[in-house]
Design goal:
35% of the residues lie in helices and 16% in strands. It is built from 18 helices and 19 strands. The structure holds 6-diazenyl-5-OXO-L-norleucine (DON).
Length: 530
């Protein structure tokens, strides 16, 4: 999709349309981001949310960049071993049910972004979501998604009532009505975040916690804070890459990968075993650092400057054996499960750019809907290392830096990113869902455009590979790679697994004086502009 003035790309066409309309009526990129954020709650309930959290990366047309962290926080009653059974083994309580929920950040995040940079009235930005919650036609993707999690949603009465009809997903083409959510959004439109963190909705969240033995209290909700943080900034072959700092690991991990690869004058051709080898080794080392060092900056000391330095990248590069895989110490890690998050990218007519990634973590989060309030709570607590040294939902093996503590933010992989061209002009705005594969998917699109000279559509569509140190395997997108390439990397000592790829990139690229928007063809999303 191309457009001369402004562009928006999201995971759902109805949310894209909300964003496009806000831009066309004079809203700026942050206005559109807030309106899209609320709209996604109504139309993409697997991931769009007011019961979860996320990150905004923002660049104004004058070149100022800023990053908003509205990640969930562990409740005050959380404790290090809360998800371990009597034998010290992780339970599934970090994934489904009331205990899985961190204190939600989304409503505070949307409000904070609007307060600092918004232009249109707050109510105008929430209004489209209210209308969508009152009723919209359910599409096939959404009906199928609900069916995929019907078993989990069925377990909680308010989820059953909101998402299922006689225990099954509503059929595509029917009108999907969420009256409780519409009421909650109306309260938020009228009263701002206080009603959510201190007022009527806070009471409903706490009542829900009592019903299901969860931990979130009124004090936890009142204590929730967003943070403006300094974005990670990495130079890559003359381009400037801005991305999310901790509490997300996205910017640092991707920055390390880019720094390692920048040391090669040019990269081997796309699709070759030689490129796969270099990328996998760079990714392995970046994820080893991620899993060891990174966590909530309020709780852990991180050597970020060193990790992101070109000299450190040279040390890592020197460890790469040109012929062989370097094994990560073996670990019997589970494969990443089904999941869902959502990313949207927006550029307005003035050239302000916003990249937002937001999530409930797993599809439909904890599967718990707040009774009477109509929204799902996240299961973000699983992003902590429930048992340091043991894999989580995404097979990530992480350490002490990401252990659970009261009030701490769980480490994320979300990677909202903005790239400037060598002249310092806005070039790319992008991000994706997909757990740890977010980091490598965003990396791939950037390198596909810069190193492999692909168009943005080709760069997003191209097959992807992922290595996260543990499990010590290259994960490949099924069908994307020639058998001879797989034979070559196996001969170099790699384990290889092929599978589906859940990282759905939503990207915008400068096109002369206008914009190109690309929604990942793996997704049901789209792009629109004017
Ligand atoms: O913050 C994170 O890294 C994860 N909770 C994101 C989960 C995710 O992307 C699932 N999506 N497909």
């Amino acid at each position: 999709m191309t457009a001369p003035h402004a562009m928006v790309t999201t995971g759902h066409p109805l949310a894209t349309e909300v964003g496009r309309k806000i831009l066309a009526q004079g809203g700026n990129a942050i206005d559109a981001a807030v309106a899209v954020g609320f709209a996604l709650t109504a139309v993409l309930p697997a991931a769009g949310n007011i019961g979860g959290g996320g990150f905004i990366l923002y660049r104004d047309s004058g070149g100022g960049v800023n990053a908003l962290d509205y990640r969930e926080m562990a409740p005050g009653g959380a404790s290090r071993n809360m998800y371990l059974d009597a034998n010290g083994n992780p339970t599934d309580a970090s994934l489904t049910g009331h205990l899985a929920a961190g204190v939600p950040g989304s409503v505070a995040g949307m409000y904070e972004a609007w307060k600092k940079y918004g232009h249109l009235p707050w109510k105008t930005l929430v209004a489209p979501a209210i209308a969508l919650a009152e009723g919209h036609v359910l599409d096939e993707d959404r009906s199928r998604e609900i069916a995929g999690d019907a078993d989990r949603l069925e377990r909680f009465p308010a989820s059953r009532a909101q998402f299922l009809v006689a225990g099954a997903a509503p059929a595509a083409g029917t009108t999907f009505r969420q009256p409780d959510l519409a009421r909650t959004l109306t309260l938020i439109a009228d009263s701002g975040p206080d009603v959510f963190y201190k007022g009527r909705i806070a009471d409903l969240i706490v009542a829900e916690m009592r019903r299901g033995h969860g931990l979130i209290t009124k004090a936890d909700l009142a204590a929730y804070r967003t943070f403006w943080r300094t974005p990670v900034r990495v130079s890559y072959r003359g381009y400037t890459v801005y991305s999310m700092p901790p509490a997300s690991s996205g910017g640092v991990t991707m920055g390390e990968i880019l720094n390692v690869l920048e040391g090669y004058d040019s990269l081997p051709p796309f699709g070759s075993a030689a490129l796969m080898h270099l990328e996998a080794e760079a990714m392995r080392r970046a994820f080893e650092d991620r899993n060891h060092w990174l966590g909530d900056p309020d709780f852990v000391q991180m050597p970020l400057e060193r990790l992101l330095s070109k000299s450190y990248a040279a040390t890592l590069r020197a460890q790469i054996d040109p012929q062989r895989a370097t094994p990560t110490p073996p670990f019997d890690a589970a494969a990443p499960g089904g999941n869902h998050t959502t990313h949207y990218s927006i550029v307005d007519a003035a050239g302000n750019a916003v990249a937002v990634t937001t999530t409930l973590n797993d599809s439909y989060g904890s599967a718990v809907t707040v009774t009477g309030a109509g929204f799902l709570l996240n299961d973000e607590m699983d992003d902590f290392a429930a048992a340091p040294g043991r894999p989580n939902l995404y097979g990530l093996v992480q350490g002490e830096a990401n252990a659970i503590a009261p009030g701490k933010r769980m480490l994320s992989a979300m990677t909202p990113t903005i790239v400037l061209d060598p002249q310092g002009k806005l070039f790319l705005v992008l991000g994706a869902p997909g757990g740890p594969r977010i980091i490598t998917a965003v990396f791939h699109v950037i390198t596909n455009v810069i190193d492999h000279h692909m168009t943005l559509a080709q760069a997003v569509e191209a097959p992807r590979l992922h290595h996260q140190a543990l499990p010590d395997t290259i994960s490949l997108e099924r069908g994307g790679w020639a058998p001879v390439v797989l034979d070559s990397v196996r001969a170099m000592g790699y384990g290889v697994s092929e599978g589906g790829y859940h990282a759905l990139v939503m990207a915008i690229e400068r096109d002369g004086t206008g914009w190109i928007g690309v929604a990942d063809p793996r997704s049901g999303g789209n792009a629109a502009g004017y």
